[in-house]
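Hi L.,

As promised, Tyrosine-type recombinase/integrase:
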Amino acid sequence: MNTHDQARFESLYSTYITELKLQGKSDKTIDCYARCLRQAAVFFDTCPDNLSTDELKRYFLFLVENKSWSAVKIARNAIQFCYKHVLHRPWTWVDIVKPPKIQVVQDVLSPTEVALIINATRKLSYQTYYLVTYSLGLRLSEAINLKVSDIDSHLMRVHLRYTKSKKDRFVPLSQATLFALRQYWCTHKHPELIFPGGKPPFLRNGHSLVMDKGGVQKAIKLIAKEIGISKNVHVHTLRHSIATHMLERG
């Protein structure tokens, strides 16, 4: 990309980020859309503000052949947003045919396997995290972002805020899980977070840090392998497993 195009792209990119924020997009969506716009600029080696329909088709053909269907849809939505809210130009819809979906059956851990993983986890923060994720049936981010104020020990429930469906919800809290939460919290006593990240005072640029997502994902795979579980185990497997166990118990 030459100097002129680079300057044009930087201006477009800055306006794009501003418009995403003004439209109330979540931080995760802003990050995804911004990355998609940067990738388009790299692909064409120019500022993607004057692309023809044929160029867009060529780009999306490349994505369909090399990326997941989810990534293709996000890229299309990201570029469409740019046309509508930044360039203020009509968007020529690029018709993309979804490839056949291969159904993949998720692995489910037995209650015994879940217990083995939790007991084999030597790091207390991770051990508590896996217990909470499983017993409450939480998504990865829901558990990591839990706050002290979300735990209601009187009504024995946990308040989940800003969930994937953008709706708050409550989940029941068992005495065993409450005990584990209290035991772990007493090791750090963070005024806000259940699972703070890094080292005390758990801050970066004045903001509280939460536990690293990548760390808990990597650890559970290693632990499962170490104790001889050959299934494809990740954090979401715990949520999927508790749902299955509850159905089996009726």
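The mean pLDDT is 89.

Thanks again for sending the construct details.

K.
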